[in-house]
Amino acid sequence: MSKGFSLKVIADKLGISLSTVSRVLNDKPGINEKTRQRVLEAVREIKSSPDNTEINPKNIKTKTIGFIRKKRVQKVLSEDYHERSITGIEEGLTNSGYHVVTISVTDEEMLDANKILVARERRVDGFIVHGPSIKPRFIHDLQSMGYPVVLLGNKLSETEIDSIYCENRRSSYDITRHLIDHGHKKIAFLSGPLEWTSNKERSLGFQDALEEAELKPIIINMPDTTFETGKEYFASAMQNDFDITAIVAVNDSTAIGVMDAARRAGVKVPDDLAIVGFDDIAWASIAYPPLTTIHIYLEEMGRLASFRLLELIDDPESVPVKASVATGMVVRGSCGCEPDEENVNRKN
Fold this sequence. Notes:
This protein is α/β, with parallel strands linked by helices. It has three domains: 7-47, no CATH class; 64-165 and 298-327, Response regulator (Rossmann fold), CATH 3.40.50; 168-295 and 329-347, 3-Layer(aba) Sandwich (Rossmann fold), CATH 3.40.50.2300. The chain has twelve helices and 13 strands. β3, α6 and β4 (149-152) form a beta-alpha-beta unit. α1 packs across α2 (18-25), α3 crosses α6 and α4 (79-92) crosses α12.
């Protein structure tokens, strides 16, 4: 983090343990609200000290906002996921005089927001932070530097912060229920990291549907949610439960990885195994067979995020707002069900 800053500095200043400071900055439960606020305030004080130099004073507007996303080493299928969000953000900024710049951050950069040039030199007036792979500590770091922040496609479990996200739990329930209603009784869920809120909610929706149908949920947690992890964990799922007839993947990239691995293993989709995803990325409609999935209205979410960030720039002390956006289920060939007008783009 910034010059002179460490977890120990905060712990010593407040007379609390190092682990307590770490849990607050990483959005972990089990800390009372008063202590949580003391830690966050102490970080803000250090970040705003004279040692933390900046090129542009805070009171001078740059008319620019930053769009932060996780930088991937490997090529990913879901690039349009970010592009659709940016399209919505740009539409939301129309007539505001603002424009958006995109910043891709690595795991190392997320350890210290001062490594981000536009943040350190105050070249933007606020940030829209995209997706659950951006670490809570980095989000707190941006806020402690005095930036308004809106989370897009994510929210924190323990900290009140402005967030725009989709109906993860309900949508996951609906698509799982769709499989159950079509006769599937042994269904596995490929989930991502446990600390990602969206994964938790989609996992809970899956469990809700299985428990309602009095079926046993099978949940496999992966370290990431990519095409490659989908391929790898398909083998794990099938080795442990040979009689699985359907897989609910936490996102489309994972689902398409599963479909590729299934094809290589001689497993026919959807005859032997039904597969569904979540997000409705561009690849979903051209996969073979086309992927049944949950459509997320990313453009609308981007617009809402930009509206909210502009409000925060004008009024940084306003009460945090959390907004949930509906989704739509898109039925295609990968689940063995013929799509019809009732199922395509049905809002949840």
